[in-house]
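Sequence in, structure out.
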Amino acid sequence: MVVILLGPPGVGKGTQAVRLADSVGWEHVSTGDLLRAARRDGTELGQKAQGYMDAGELVPDALILDLVRDHLKGVAPEAGIIFDGFPRTTAQAEKLDGVLQGTRRRVDRVVVFEASDDELVKRLAGRRSCPQCGAVFNVHFTPPENEGKCDRCGAALVHRDDDQPDTVLRRLVVYREQTAPLIEWYGHSDAKVVPVSAEAGVDEVQRSFRKAVGR
């Protein structure tokens, strides 16, 4: 099964995706993680991505999709896959379909996590991110075992500039502008689109997520 997980910033996509993937043996695919790994390892694609980032430019969709394509080569054909926060636009969705077809896969389920703006701003104000491995924690809801340190790799956690309230509200506007047509696009595909309320506790949201994907 291939699942696309969508939702606004701060809704908990990463936390829920990793938790489900780890418990059922699925592959969690975050393009941010793929970019960081490629840059860290100095791969050819990583070096190309670094060139764009050093120039202050966005990494092109084509390069992101090349990273996804390469990563899927190492994923067993029978393994479930969760795409976390990608695609973000219909153009990316169309190109991702092409990549999946090349591995004899298709998108089966699109899960849309939903929460109010007030809830999202509160969550993001407490969010702390790991610059090394990409893990995300929240000082209110999912704090790290050791304050200020990543549970996975031990790196110092950071409070990102884009997690400030005014910036968060702008990000939410952009998300809705991009994602509304994407959800509509998937609604006309063979994939099943399932909304999930993400305002409950972590365990309850996980149960709803599992139900949405039949696990």
